[in-house]
Automatic annotation (TrEMBL):
The lineage of its organism: Bacteria, Candidatus Nomuraibacteriota. PANTHER family: CELL CYCLE PROTEIN, PEPTIDOGLYCAN GLYCOSYLTRANSFERASE FTSW-RELATED. Keywords: Cell shape, Glycosyltransferase, Membrane, Peptidoglycan synthesis, Transferase, Transmembrane, Transmembrane helix. It comes from Candidatus Nomurabacteria bacterium GW2011_GWF2_40_12. One of its GO terms (cellular component) is cell division site. It is found in: Membrane. One of its GO terms (biological process) is peptidoglycan biosynthetic process. This is Probable peptidoglycan glycosyltransferase FtsW. Signal peptide: none annotated. The chain crosses the membrane at residues 9-34, 40-63, 75-96, 116-132, 139-157, 163-179, 186-205, 272-289, 301-324, 336-359. It catalyses: [GlcNAc-(1->4)-Mur2Ac(oyl-L-Ala-gamma-D-Glu-L-Lys-D-Ala-D-Ala)](n)-di-trans,octa-cis-undecaprenyl diphosphate + beta-D-GlcNAc-(1->4)-Mur2Ac(oyl-L-Ala-gamma-D-Glu-L-Lys-D-Ala-D-Ala)-di-trans,octa-cis-undecaprenyl diphosphate = [GlcNAc-(1->4)-Mur2Ac(oyl-L-Ala-gamma-D-Glu-L-Lys-D-Ala-D-Ala)](n+1)-di-trans,octa-cis-undecaprenyl diphosphate + di-trans,octa-cis-undecaprenyl diphosphate + H(+).
């Protein structure tokens, strides 16, 4: 099939999200500058040079790599991502923080390998579903392989622990099964099983219990487990309709925990107000819808599923962050894609965008 130009509308959406993301990250990071100039410049370098800079390079490279490459090496990519994520338990490589073992320390930098696992899972699951095709409606070729993959991922992520990434990957996988035509009754069964599993985790995990209690009663323990959501509400409420103005957030200074990371949407709402927050949400919705359009016009089944998986993954993660900050969903700590601190996350997601742009060059005319 002859190559065309990339989908310009999708590229414009990405550009707007990146521009807004960089602006809000720099603004939110000013809270760090007030406490430590060295930390501020270190975080800025990691995000803008290693994350954004290398991410744009990866996006360009993935734009140039034919999408069939990912299908041909899907198993090796997934296996490599599993081994890399499990490497956090190797004493010489792993680095822990706050009781979690989620990072690999290379000496000159630290990164979270789970970001590569998200990408690897989407690639391999898209390849598997495109290989079985209509057999996916058979339990043995659809639900069972998914359950096996998720179980392997759960063994690694629950050990770290990293419940939020497990939830994100599982929701993405279920969505891909739905797109591929798996019967609803099977998906409802998987959903019910997931709820039971998460309920059991909450029952036996104190920190998850605290987050559920905070979700049910945001006023509970305002100086403890509910502190972040209380400060987020204050930030969003003080933003009003049009916001305090760019860079004028008060909550990012010694009030909001991780203003450049877990709480960045609260800073955005305070500075840009209801209007700015709404425009941000609309951009993510447009990203999803345009991605689905590219998937619908993709040259083959694999590329369509791959695009669907990528845009669902990014959108679900973004809305998990927004829902947590606004109190619609329990606090998860997931970063807002293209905006929150996380050089590795930004780099990997830009690489994913490059894959979508490459596939958009082969769109069929419907």
């Amino acid at each position: 099939m002859k190559e065309k130009k990339v989908d310009k509308f999708f590229l414009v959406i990405i550009s707007l999200l990146l521009f807004l993301g960089v602006a809000m990250f720099v603004s939110a990071s000013l809270g760090l500058l007030a406490r430590s100039e060295e930390t501020f410049y270190s975080v800025l370098f990691s995000q803008l040079v290693l994350g954004l800079g290398l991410g744009l390079v990866c996006m360009y490279l993935c734009l140039k790599i034919n999408y069939k490459f990912w299908r041909n090496y899907s198993f090796l990519i997934f296996l490599g991502s599993i081994l890399l994520t499990a490497a956090v338990f190797v004493p010489a490589l792993g680095w822990s923080h706050g009781g979690a073992e989620r990072w690999i320390d290379l000496g000159f930098t630290k990164f979270q390998p789970v970001e590569f696992l998200k990408f690897g899972f989407v690639i391999y699951f898209a390849a598997w579903l495109s290989w079985v095709k209509n057999k996916v409606q058979d339990f043995r070729f659809g639900i069972l392989p998914f359950a096996i993959l998720i179980s392997i991922i759960a063994l690694i992520l629950f050990k770290q622990p990293d419940t939020k990434s497990f939830i994100l990957i599982t929701i993405t996988g279920i969505s891909m099964l739905f797109v591929s035509g798996v019967p609803i009754k099977y998906l409802l069964g998987v959903g019910f099983g997931l709820v039971l599993l998460l309920g059991t985790l909450v029952y036996f995990t104190p920190y998850l219990q605290a987050r559920v209690k905070t979700f049910i009663d945001p006023a509970h323990d305002a100086q403890g487990s509910s502190y972040q959501i209380q400060q987020s509400f204050i930030a969003l409420g003080s933003g009003g309709v049009f916001g305090r103005g760019f860079g004028q957030s008060v909550q990012k200074f010694n009030y909001l925990p991780e203003p450049q990371g877990d709480s960045i949407f609260a800073v955005l709402g305070e500075e840009l107000g209801f209007v700015g927050a709404s425009i941000t949400i609309i951009l993510y919705i447009l990203f999803l819808l345009r991605g689905f359009r590219i998937a619908n016009r993709a040259p083959d089944y694999f590329s369509g599923l791959l695009v669907s998986g990528i845009v669902i993954l990014i959108t679900v993660q973004s809305f998990m962050h927004i829902a947590s900050i606004t109190g619609v969903f329990p606090l998860t700590g997931v970063p807002l894609v293209f905006m929150s601190q996380g050089g590795t996350s930004l780099m990997v997601y830009l690489a994913m965008v490059g894959v979508v742009l490459n596939i958009s060059r082969f769109q069929k005319n419907l």
